[in-house]
Design a protein that fits this description.
With 381 residues, this protein is of the alpha/beta class. Helix content is 45%, strand content 16%. The chain is globular, with a radius of gyration of 23 Å.
Length: 381
């Protein structure tokens, strides 16, 4: 439908991935929505059919992986589902493991996720808690760089699969390239074998980086503010998301949650007020730059000396985005060099203005995030 509407271009590799996701959708529908057959159905029993294999979708950045997974997730038939960036998921897992270890033996036995023969091992009860909340897990940008993650993933996923959880994941790396050259990698290899056994592996081989097409066709800095800028920003957002569902998201930053008002995959949209009028710092902006490879910012104002704090935060924000290679699309009241003409730090702001200009260039757009192997993904990615 998105292709017919013109929101997405035809891509044969994406079509192949979409067909495989549709097959999985149909299998899940049969598993979760079909009534039990035969005598079990008459007695009100439940299907005991094994969960279908999940899907591991990998390929270079900009190929549409996250967009396809988001569309699949939105239409998935079961209510108990969870779509999360893999880095954020592992943070949740570590928090759950820590919380379990703080419980007394008696509190563990009374806990609804208690597993009788698990002993002191927190992995199985944590996996049971995850499975209760989601029978379908969709992970964006599965990548392993942390040795602590590497050491628990095999046991964690084995427990999740044993609970009947179906996993769909996107990654820039083939399974055999995960945690490459990592410390004690031989202990990680069973997780790779588990992926191959419980998930179909599909390489999205498209040659086109869809993230670059928007910047190559039009402006990414829209000034002055007004109806034309609004129309351009909305059009950019529509093209980037390709009709994929959007929702508010939260990022865990140093033990607190950072709200992202609009996001889908690795594209996020903020207002200037969301980012610079709030008491945010470099860690917040780095978290955004790590999680999203394209960010839209609406309504950047001209700032005077009374808004020096907002100007300072904006400098930090642009520095973080520039260093991380974020694709920035924004609407502003004036050209970059006129955004903060006078006030404390206005001299330093000139560097920010220069970076805003450079971030509009074809050279920047052609290299932003392309060489990155970290935690960035989005639709279309």
């Amino acid at each position: 439908m998105a292709v017919k509407a013109g929101a997405l271009s035809v891509d044969s590799c994406q079509e192949l991935a979409a067909e495989q996701l549709q097959v999985l959708h149909n299998r899940l529908q049969n598993l979760f929505l079909s009534p039990p057959r035969g005598l079990k159905g008459l007695l009100g029993g439940k299907n005991k059919e094994p969960a279908p294999k999940g899907l591991y979708l990998y390929g270079d950045v900009g190929r549409g992986k996250s967009m396809l997974m988001d569309l699949f997730f939105e239409g998935a038939p079961q209510a108990a589902k969870h779509r999360v960036h893999f880095h954020a998921f592992m943070q949740e897992v570590h928090q759950a493991i820590h919380a379990w270890r703080q419980l007394s033996p008696g509190a563990r036995r009374r806990h609804p996720d208690f597993v009788r023969d698990a002993g002191d091992d927190p992995i199985r009860p944590v996996a049971q808690g995850i499975a209760k909340g989601a029978r379908l897990l969709c992970f964006d940008e599965l990548q392993v760089t942390d040795i602590t993650d590497a050491m628990i993933l095999g046991r964690l996923f084995e427990a999740l699969f044993a609970q009947g959880v179906v996993v769909v994941a996107t990654s820039n790396r083939a399974p055999d390239a995960l945690y490459e050259d990592g410390i004690n990698r031989q202990l990680f290899l069973p997780f790779i074998d588990l992926i191959k056994a419980r998930m179909d592996v599909l390489h999205l081989e498209g040659r086109q980086d869809h993230r670059l097409t928007l910047g190559s066709r039009g402006q990414v800095y829209h000034a002055p503010l007004g109806q034309a800028a609004e129309v351009a920003m909305n059009a950019a957002w529509a093209e980037l998301t390709g009709g994929a569902p959007e929702s508010p998201q939260s990022l865990l930053v140093q033990g607190r949650m950072l709200n992202v008002p609009r996001a889908t995959g690795g594209a996020a949209r903020f207002s200037f007020i969301d980012l610079a009028d709030q008491p945010l710092a470099a860690a917040d902006y780095l978290a955004i730059a790590t999680r999203y490879h394209t960010v839209l910012i609406d309504h950047i104002p001209v700032m005077d000396k009374d808004r020096r704090n907002e100007a300072k935060r904006f400098v930090t924000l642009i520095d973080a985005f520039y260093e991380a290679g974020v694709n920035l699309i924004c609407s502003a009241a004036a050209a970059p060099h006129a955004l903060y003409p006078a006030g404390d730090g206005s001299f330093e702001f000139s560097r920010t203005a220069s970076r805003l200009i450079e971030m509009q260039s074809a050279a920047y757009l052609a290299t932003s995030h392309v060489c990155s192997d970290d935690l960035r993904a989005f639709s279309p990615s």
